Amino acid sequence: MPVMRNLQSPEIKEMFSSWVAELGFRGIILFYFLQVLQNLIAVIPGGPMQVFAGAAFGAWRGLFILQAGCLSAAVIIFTMVKKFGNPLMTRFLGDDLINTWSFLKDEKKTAKLTFILFLITGVPKDALTYIAAMTKFSLVQFLPISLIARFPGMLLSTMMGAALMQGNWLFFILIFAVTGITGILGIHFKERIIRKFS
After folding, report:
1. Phi-psi bin for 120: left (phi > 0), alpha (psi -120 to 50), beta?
2. CA 60 – CA 63 distance, rounded (Å)
């Protein structure tokens, strides 16, 4: 992972810390808008952003900035989808992706399944936000699910970034291993989990 290799260097760490300190509050705003952008453009991977946020601001402050960005992006996505309708989103996401998550259109199961899918490492959560917005799911229902379900994975990522900056390699390797194992298990058992709760 390039972000991890770069932050291993003491010189890069010093430059990165100085850059964040120089930005001050502007750095928080910058990372917030980058997180919003990353959520809106669903093809951009979120992992490196989360590690960077932890490295720049610490695990908990980084998590808060990321969650604020995710919630703001969700508001934009739901507003956009409800206003412009499904045809535009179908053109944006593609029929294949939408058909993959078509089971979420069952109104009685949407909340439960969305929460479970957001918990699973490796599921494309940003694309899933668009899919959820295309159902009868409301923004008020979606926001707490997104906030709570994203919390564990995001916290682990920001903790990795913080550990990397502190040179706490044992803790970093432990979190990296836990994240990797849960990701592999999540991808492998995703279909079974979906069938079980569908």
Report:
1. beta
2. 5
Domain count, the chain: 1
Closest C-alpha to 157, from 59, 13, 31, 38: 59
More confident call, 35 vs 184: 35
The dihedrals phi and psi of 56, each to the nearest 5 degrees, come to -80, -40
What whole-number distance in Å separates Cα of residue 60 and Cα of residue 134? 32
Range of the domain at 78: 2-197
By mean pLDDT, which of 25-29, 44-48, 145-149, 156-160 is the weakest?
A: 44-48
Q: Which residue has the tokens 């995001």?
A: 154
Residue 85's region, left for phi above 0, alpha for psi from -120 to 50, else beta, is left
Q: Quick check: helix, strand or coil at residue 9?
A: coil
What are the φ/ψ torsions at residue 136 (nearest 5 degrees)? -80, 5
